[in-house]
Write a structure and sequence with these properties.
mainly beta, 53 residues, elongated, 3 strands
Length: 53
């Protein structure tokens, strides 16, 4: 698994290989994920409720 986040853009790559007795294919599987984070908060939400802390 490999991932990178740069200026809100997200890129991730994953390679999986089945090694158990139930094999559907002889090869592995590649997965590529591209995304963008819209307006993510940098700070944690400040809750003034004492029972949640």
């Amino acid at each position: 698994l490999l991932g990178l986040e740069l200026n809100g853009f997200v890129f991730a790559y994953n390679y999986s290989y089945q090694s158990n007795s139930v094999v559907f294919d002889n090869g592995g599987y590649h997965q590529i994920t591209l995304g963008f984070n819209f307006g993510c908060r940098k700070k944690r939400y400040n809750c003034e409720c004492p029972w949640l802390k």
